[in-house]
Design goal:
The protein is globular, with a radius of gyration of 22 Å. By secondary structure, the chain is an alpha+beta fold. Strand 6 and strand 7 form a beta hairpin. The strands form two sheets. Strands 1, 2, 3, 4, 5, 6, 7 and 12 form an eight-stranded mixed sheet that branches.
Length: 428
């Protein structure tokens, strides 16, 4: 009931948890956010046995375009999230209000076929529900009122945050919270692959679901090896900044899909499915034949894959051994490889639109002048965002510098939060 939710939110434990999720200075406003959600849920669906849920966006620190070929990544959940109040409704209908995107829809559990377009939130939720069924888990009817401050189209996985939020609800309501987070990620991937025609890997979903700073080895994608890295960038006087360069006007679906496809084409030459099943030396020894079979860009992208895996290992070791300068050098090297080898900083369908390249050039000029910091492309690429890691004393100047060039409200300072997709009530 709403009165129970409000009572829970007024407890010292709730304020402590909100501080961990959103930052110590944001506890009170976060409590107010959930109280408002409870009020809006009651107005929309009535006074039911409500529960609160949260799922963060994610940042990719290294491992650009490696997960889909079963490689290694370094990523973290961030202090921006999808938040919701939800309750079981005892019917065969799922009813969702998404306030941020002005959506309100219902799904009949007896009709989970995707639309002909295979796009949009309804198809995505249908895919999640179908994924639960395919993996032998229970589903049921529930109502949810959702809001999000995860920046859309900015490479911080607003869609994966939403997916993991819904997974957390279904797991809590109908499966006694027994499902593990790896299964969450596979269900999200299933939905995107089959209900969105998006050839995504598991990185986004895993980083949103697990929480904290993590490294993931996807060599066995059904059982990815996840390790949490206890490291606080704030303790080294640095902040993570995401810069939104503006969404590209071109349809980037083919650009995104070409990356895993071309890497897999190199693997195919050796009778394998993905690059993780190869040794870099074998590609180099057979370079002429591989180039003829797969093409030069495919070879370059495969070489990026091998070297990026090594960089992830080196950066994780640097963090564990408190070699922060070496870690920053790894970020720079990752960015250079993405730009030159992976080639995902702009689309070939419109070479005059290069927001990513411009933002990287500006940031590199800034870092060269200050002699401190690192930057790289962030996320899928071709358009969207870049990431910078800068000393705290330079952040304000950098944000002003970038917003002066790209427009106000395009640079965001973020922090790593220690929780992934959770039912807040279960944490209190």
């Amino acid at each position: 009931m709403k009165i129970e939710v409000l009572k829970t939110l007024d407890s010292p434990k709730a304020r402590s948890l909100m501080g961990k999720l959103y930052g110590e200075g944001c506890a009170e406003e976060s409590v107010a956010r959930y109280k408002e959600l409870a009020e809006k849920f009651e107005k929309e669906f009535g006074d039911k046995d409500m529960m609160m849920f949260s799922s963060p966006g994610r940042t990719e620190i290294s491992g650009n375009h490696t997960d889909h070929n079963h490689g290694k990544v370094l990523a973290g959940s961030i202090n921006l999230d999808c938040a919701a109040v939800a309750a079981k409704n005892g019917t065969d209908k799922v009813n969702i209000v998404s306030e941020t995107f002005n959506q309100k829809f219902s799904i009949d559990l007896g009709d989970l076929a995707p639309s002909s377009k295979k796009a949009g939130t309804v198809d995505l939720v249908k895919g999640l529900l179908k994924g639960f069924e395919e993996m032998g888990y229970k589903t049921g009817g529930f109502d949810a009122y959702v809001t999000s401050n995860v920046i859309s189209s900015a490479g911080v996985s607003s869609s994966a945050a939403f997916e993991m939020l819904i997974c957390s609800m279904i797991n809590t309501f109908f499966n006694d919270s027994r499902m593990d987070i790896v299964t969450y990620a596979h269900i999200g991937k299933y939905s995107e692959n089959h209900y969105w025609n998006k050839s995504s890997g598991l990185l986004d979903q895993m980083a949103c679901a697990v929480g904290g700073l993590i490294t993931i080895d996807f060599k066995d994608p059904m059982k990815p090896v996840v390790e949490q890295i206890p490291f606080d960038f704030g303790s080294h006087g640095h902040s993570l900044i995401i810069v939104n360069t503006g969404r590209g006007h071109a349809d980037l679906s083919e650009d995104y899909s070409s990356v895993p496809r071309e890497m897999k084409k190199v693997a195919e030459y050796f009778g394998k499915e993905v690059c993780a099943q190869l040794e870099e030396e074998d590609v180099l020894k057979n370079l002429a034949k591989v180039r003829e079979y797969a093409g030069d860009r495919s070879v370059m992208r495969a070489l990026h894959f091998f070297e990026e895996n090594k960089r992830v290992e080196a950066e994780v070791a640097a963090l564990k051994e408190d070699r922060f300068d070496d870690f920053l050098a790894g970020i720079t090297a990752s960015g250079n490889s993405s730009w030159k080898w992976l080639q995902n900083c702009y689309t070939n369908s419109d070479v005059q639109e290069q927001g990513i390249s411009v933002a990287l050039a500006l940031t590199e000029l800034f870092i060269e002048e200050k002699k401190r910091g690192a930057c790289r492309i962030h996320g899928g690429g071709f358009a969207g965002v870049i990431m910078a890691m800068l000393p705290n004393d330079l952040v304000e100047e950098y944000v002003e510098y970038m917003e002066g060039a790209l427009g106000k409200g395009n640079a965001y300072k973020m922090s790593i939060r220690p929780y992934g997709a959770i039912c807040i009530d279960r944490e209190l």
